[in-house]
Write a structure and sequence with these properties.
Keywords: ATP-binding, Nucleotide-binding, Transport. The chain has 261 residues and is of the alpha/beta class. It contains 10 helices and 10 strands. A 6-stranded mixed β-sheet has the order 6-7-8-3-9-10. Strands 2-1-4-5 form a 4-stranded antiparallel β-sheet, with helices on one face. α4 packs parallel to α6 (162-173). The longest helix has 12 residues, at 135-146.
Length: 261
């Protein structure tokens, strides 16, 4: 009930989690993004699809502050964050995962999640060993359950399977009460069983947490999103519902070779 209440309040205000207005990014003469206009509502789940080189990851890097846009504006829940550094965007509730795992292999699963929770809290510089009732440890236990890693609680990250490491990355993105998450190809390299588990995890996230997912696996992307944005050569090519995108002949021809059925 509380999750639905938060989502309803955000959506009732007409708030947008993300607003991109004419966002562009150039690397010398290379135009990686050109005039991207996009609005994503609070609590919305959006997929961004496109072939390699379409500009998807550059879009993420621009939203998170890894790259600053060379043109346009970015707003996060109404606040202009166009020139804010990445750590300030994190403090405002923006999170992301990466295509390549960014994990501390020598830590246990629970310690990794705990440190992620502590890292965005006011007590992040405390040297005291946490008690079982520590608020960050309690949150870490809850996140552990949400990403289906309870059985792996105390094992080293280095011993996790590739799929479990992807689940742990989602866990780290959930630390510290995020308002919006960017998932960069979370299904890459996963087995069919692991992909089904990923879909279940994403669909079970609290309703007030919106996200954008970049994903080459169309079946995964369409099962976890409410709306889809297609990119091509650094531009928005087409937008629609998952059903509209899946059945669009032009999308099938350009991105799927007309073979998706």
């Amino acid at each position: 009930m509380a999750e639905n209440s938060v989502a309803s309040r955000l959506q009732g205000t007409g708030a947008f989690a993300l607003e991109l207005e004419g966002v562009g990014r150039q690397f010398g003469a290379l135009v990686a993004l050109a005039g991207i206009d996009m609005r994503i509502a609070a609590g919305e789940r959006r997929a961004v699809l496109g072939s390699n080189g379409a500009g998807k990851t550059t879009l993420f890097n621009t939203i998170t502050g890894d790259f600053l846009p060379t043109s346009g504006r970015i707003r996060f829940f109404g606040e202009d964050i166009t020139t804010l550094p990445a750590h300030e965007r994190i403090r405002r509730g923006l999170r992301r995962t990466y295509q390549i795992s960014q994990l501390f292999k020598g830590l246990s699963v629970i310690d990794s999640i705990f440190l992620a929770c502590r890292g965005v809290s006011r007590r992040r510089f405390s040297l005291l060993r946490p008690a079982a009732t520590d608020v960050n440890m309690v949150q870490a236990q809850s996140i552990l359950h949400a990403v289906h890693l309870e059985a792996e609680r105390d094992i080293l990250v280095a011993t996790l399977s590739h799929g479990q490491q992807r689940q742990l990355e989602i866990a780290l993105a959930l630390a510290g009460a995020p308002r919006f998450i960017l998932f960069d190809e979370p299904a890459a390299g996963l087995s069919p069983t692991e992909r089904r588990d990923l879909v279940a995890i994403l669909n079970a996230l609290p309703k007030h947490i919106g996200y954008v997912i970049i994903e080459h696996d169309l079946d995964v992307a369409l099962r976890v999103s409410e709306r889809v944005s297609m990119m091509h050569n650094g531009r928005l090519f087409k937008e629609g519902t998952p059903e509209e995108i899946e059945n669009d002949p032009e999308v099938q021809e350009i991105y799927l070779g007309g073979r998706h059925g």
